[in-house]
# Entry
Amino acid sequence: MSTHDAPAAPAEFEARLRAIGEAAYHDKHPFHVLMHAGKLTKRQLQAWIENRFYYQCMIPKKDAAILAKADDADFRRAWITRIVDHDGSAERAGGLSKWLALAEAAGLAREDVQSLRFVLPGVRFAVDAYLHLVESSSLAVAVASSLTELFAPPLMSDRMAVFETHYPWIDRTGLEYFRGRLVEAPRDAAWGLRYVMEHCTTRAEQERAAAALTTKCHILWSLLDSVYFAYVAPGWLPPLIDRAVSDE
Amino acid sequence: MSTHDAPAAPAEFEARLRAIGEAAYHDKHPFHVLMHAGKLTKRQLQAWIENRFYYQCMIPKKDAAILAKADDADFRRAWITRIVDHDGSAERAGGLSKWLALAEAAGLAREDVQSLRFVLPGVRFAVDAYLHLVESSSLAVAVASSLTELFAPPLMSDRMAVFETHYPWIDRTGLEYFRGRLVEAPRDAAWGLRYVMEHCTTRAEQERAAAALTTKCHILWSLLDSVYFAYVAPGWLPPLIDRAVSDE
# Structure
């Protein structure tokens, strides 16, 4: 198959994008498997929460970078809701403050998490790559990189049950982030998928969209690699990162 | 200490930069320790060579980005030698072709290495971060990020001895890269250190230089994390990376 071939039919293209999630979405990562089996220690789960916060911080920035690529007010009107969902408004809390509430419910100090000082370098490099991927892609390909949202909803509902059952030391009020994503992710994913289907109409653009979604899956995977590697096994931190590795 | 403080004296600032290398240069990484103790399998050493090639490819690109920041022909005349050292000239082979010779001497197919198709995502994210670090820094801070060269020369001479003793299946003609760096790295490091000392003359710029050198150490460290994690222990590759993990 070459990029000069005719484009794949929509059903075939969508199946290809879904197969990437099937193979590479981070729910298959050993750290994630441990998390959902209730096997993480308190410190390990905290490490995930404080490192993942760096990813949460990047979401509105990458969405702003996507917004800046759009020439069309209809696109911007639809996409801007993502930024508002994460940053919140006068009336309601956004995803970022819900994530900080999760961190506090898990026993972390809000200031420690917000300062980003315990974020592992490998997590920074992976998450920063998401912004660079979006900045260097066409609008439709940048939208395609967000399609991991197609695979998120079942995970979010599992996660609330998992946290309530296996990690009862986390206050339930901390789980609002996941509840919010149950509504937001399917709406955003459906919109994004429709956009990608309508705008990736050449084989070359479809190839770039599939590559961007693969890279996005690798970003989420790499984030978990770093946390697993530092806090689960073989259990070392990079130099100049001063953080407890295990529960006291 | 605040960034409004008076700048550190040159000797104190240099000692601080050297202490960063002392704490965080990648010779302390467990993968590197295994390598120099002769404990890597053939496949593990090959994995390092093929992944590290992605870093080698980035060197002339980040040096070109630094060159593009310089207003001064004297600076550019000095710095351009780095690009020529890596890319070579009609008269002599450059670092990139010497690295490919090392890969072939270690039993890898040149085309596989050049294609970058086995480069781990975590390695890509870390190495790409080097280019972004340089692009987003002042000229003097970008130069500071190159000062890992201060710590490289003893490592290069050790490495040649280590490879000859412990990995005799690598043809000696493959070791020219390390021999070249024995001459180039001290020359470049001395030049870079002098430049950083002369141009980072405020406390704020010294802080940024120290932070850039720390990030650079974390980039090299993270590269080894990814290779260790995939090929040594616990031994899994990210999804959609189709590569043998162990010797056949």
Summary: Chain B has eleven helices and no strands.
